[in-house]
């Protein structure tokens, strides 16, 4: 429907003002902008980037390994655990369950000083867990491990 004069009604336009007439009804910032992303989302994307990098170099190591991110480690370690994992934990495959790597987001974020340091800690934890699962030395998987 058009009004007299050929202009469309306000609710038929693509962008129109909110019900009080003070602003547009659209997002303040785009979904690709840094402010839209949460800390957890940025952490997940860093983990995915490191996994892609490791998969390009060692596809056979990551074959059949599941990776997960949790906020904090469990409060009480299970009786069969030899040590309490603060930053990450690896579980070997057994009884039809694939091998798993779990990274704990909050302890890693607390230990990191900046974004680059956070990426390095994620890389080191993933490499050390893969080394535990495969029986290799971490330096064999990634020569920059620990720097």
From TrEMBL:
Segments passing through the bilayer: none
One Pfam family cited in the UniProt record for this chain: Zincin_1
Organism expressing this protein natively: Bifidobacterium primatium
Protein name, as recorded: Peptidase
InterPro entries: Zincin_1, Zincin_1_sf
Higher taxonomy: Bacteria, Bacillati, Actinomycetota, Actinomycetes, Bifidobacteriales
Domain of life: Bacteria
